[in-house]
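Researcher: Please predict.
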Amino acid sequence: MSDIAIYHNPRCGTSRNTLAMIRNSGEEPTVIQYLKTPPAREKLVELIGAAGLGVRGIMRAKEAIFSELGLGDPAKTDDELIDAMMAHPILINRPIVVTPLGTRLCRPSEVVLEILPHVQRGAFTKEDGEQVVDAEGRRV
């Protein structure tokens, strides 16, 4: 079992790029498609704490359900926001990556480079054509 995990949405370009950079470092992570298999409440709270962003920092405010539920209201408590993420996992921002070096919300995807235990094995270009890593494995 890998010591790297990614909470992944295969429909998200940022998530796909992050997963590809993990693999470009020679690692095969545990891929958790969190929309199919959401984390337990305790795990979600742990991820939020480890990422250091707070509950609002890990929420995906761009989703229609965010507005529909009035989650932008500053009076909403952390517990209420977590309840909403548990009921609607699409509200969990992605990708969240956990490695022995830390936990990060990898937006933009190259944030993952800060917590990968191994350097990139070669060049990496995002799906949109942006080069992130050169042929020697150095960040551009």
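Model: The domain at 5-133 is CATH 3.40.30.10 (Glutaredoxin).
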